[in-house]
Amino acid sequence: MSSHNRRRMINSRPIQSSLPLYRQATRPITFAPTPTTYKEWHFPWNVYAHASLLQEGRITDFHYGLCPHDITDLQAAQQYATDLLIARLPPLPCRILQVGVGLGTTLSLLTQYGYSVQSIASDTQQITYVRTCLKKQATVVCQQLEDFEAEAGSFDLILFQESAQCIEPLIIFNKALDLLSPSGSILIMDEFALKRTETTVEKLHLLNDMTSLAKRFGFKCIEQLDLTPMATPMLDYRLSVTTAHRQQLIRDLTLNHEKLVQLNTSIQNYRKKYADGYYGYGLLHFKKESTPKWRLKSLKQQQSVEMLHLFEKTFNHCMTPATWHWKYSAVAGRAIGIWRKDQLIAHYGGIARHILLCGQPQTAVQIGDVMVDASERGTLTRKGPFFLMAATFLERYIGYGKPYLIGFGFPNERAMKVAERHGLYAEVGRMTEFSWQPLSKLPQWKTRLQPIDQATTSDTGRAIDACWQHMAEDLQDMIVGIRDWRFLQYRYLNHPSQRYQMVLVKNRLSERVRGLLVLRHDADGCEIVDLVAPLNEIALLVTQARRLAGLNGHRRLFCRITENFAAPFSAAGGIRQALNIRIPANIWSHGPAPETLKDRWWLMSGDTDFR
Q1: How far apart are CA 307 and CA 25, in angstroms?
Q2: pLDDT at 18
Q3: Cys staple from 245: which of 54, 167, 202, 374, with CB 3.0 to 4.6 Å?
């Protein structure tokens, strides 16, 4: 790990050189599960556990060990890690919620030392095993933290020993606020991501994001330790024992050779991320200092009624439940809300969108339905609702290693300026509008129109997909939302409230498809909401759209497109007008630099969620 990344992780006092002599106070617990038991456990933990048993003759826990220079034994290294946690516990009496139980070693030790411990875990096989081994000591229930309920202030400490990485950080801090006493604390020993440059989604929480979120929830980080150098040997250990006992692991656990090779390759890749400073292992100790004015939470489907009520108050018109479902449920949408007590006062939504970024498939997210209750809007600082939810959303969902590589949206000017001032967004494009006079109702003799609806045949769907592929080739150096037949059906034919006219433009004699038009008819005129065609066919599609505008009695045809693609529409004539709509990119969390996205988006009205 580079010295720069290590400094990012180190804070507060160093590791104490003399830990309490807990190992002298109790006998270590030795577990002896059989290979049959391992088969019921999740891969790869069954492999690690059995390989360690074959190597050591016993197994005491699953978690990483920490290896100072004088420790080379696995059990001693794991005990050192547990000692490090116990040395930081509050004095007795102390009520502890342990999230994740492992094989029960830490639970047993804490109980012996007089702590009042409640353990929760979601793995039923582990719980059954721990209850068998610890009997009355096993105060463990099968429950996820998100669903765990207890009286407010029931615990003095919440302990995560390599279990935090599997839990949404918003859940961790929300539950901690509810369950901890006024001066309670959170103790986490786990792996973290230190930096990211890859586009694939990674499971480890970014360390900086974790500490930033803690502050927003009123927690102070009182200690932060980098334990990476002492944890790294555990990866070497796992690789060595799974290699040394390969044949017996295959026999005892009924594994195939290829699966074990894949596991060892995964360990090697993991080891490289540690060496290159992408991953690290550390301890975080947070203390509850205050109860925040607002509470950040992920918005769930059952809370959609609250969102719809806030939407109506904010925008003075209604969104139907069907439209909410179309936006946020049908395509894995995500949203963050802010509550004041029991009332939703702010919302920041994200709608997933599959895109091509310079010809490569990626996933983006459209930011929409950003709103703050009028009574709370005056707070536009970094402590206000908008910043809290925007920064949290960007940290959690957008950037390298996150669910969405990039984001986009169509914010109003006020929201864009606030986001720019706080360093959340940067402008990467603008929208412009073209308008044309309708044409004669007489047909174009070289081409004809074919209506597209739900009854469209699969052959026509394949022709539309082929048309999309030609468009994608023209935009291979740009960013464009995928416009295949499947997306077009969802976006336009399945919309719960809007009605669109979709027509295919084809040669009259050869039947060759030239392009697809999506039109919206309302009091403002006829709008080209979307089109799918090679760029050199846009002028033809505009001509056909002008004719359809005349057929429907409109006074004008218009279209909105990002400025960087104005040229193909200018070729069709018309009047061009600049719009005060800017396209933002995320600059808060680490992802593609905004200059690499500048003037690359192909966006039309159909890329919004509100037209």
Answers
A1: 55
A2: 35
A3: 54
Average pLDDT, the chain: 90
Angle among Cα 588, 390, 190 to the nearest 5 degrees reads 70
Alpha carbon distance 330, 306 (integer Å): 19
- Using the predicted structure, report yes or no on whether residue 471 has a pLDDT greater than 70: yes
**pLDDT tens column, 235-260:** 999 999 999 999 998 988 888 889 99
Give the C-alpha separation, 547 to 551, whole Å: 6
Look at residues 499, 497, 487, 491 and name the one whose alpha carbon lies nearest to residue 321. Answer: 497
Is the bond preceding 44 in cis, omega lying within 30 degrees of 0? Answer: yes
Instruction: Determine the residue type at 242.
Output: T
Coil, strand or helix: which one is 250? helix
**Tokens at residue 452, please?**
């597209």
Which three-class secondary structure state does DSSP give residue 291?
Answer: coil
pLDDT of residue 32: 54
Cβ proximity of 120 and 140 under 8 Å: yes
Element at 371 (helix H, strand E) = strand 360-372
Amino acid letter, 528: I
What does pTM read for this prediction? 0.91
Strands 575-586 and 425-436: antiparallel
* Each residue's pLDDT tens digit, 119-156: 999 888 888 878 888 877 778 999 999 999 999 999 99
Closest by alpha carbon to 539, among 440, 447, 429, 432? 447
Helices 385-397 and 207-216: angle between axes, nearest 10 degrees: 160
**Residue from 228, 106, 207, 202 nearest 157 by CA:** 106
Reduced to 3 states (helix: H, G, I; strand: E, B; else coil), residue 230 is helix
For residue 318, what are the contacts with CB-CB under 8 A and spacing of at least 6?
308, 311, 312
pLDDT at 364 over 70: yes
Complete DSSP assignment for 421-460: HTTSEEEEEEEEEEEE----SSPPSSEEEEEE-TT--HHH
Q: Are 516 and 505 in contact, with CB atoms under 8 Å apart?
A: yes
Residue type present at position 315: F
Start-to-end CA span in the chain (Å): 49
Residue 481, beta-bridge partner list: 355
Rounded average pLDDT over 181-192: 97
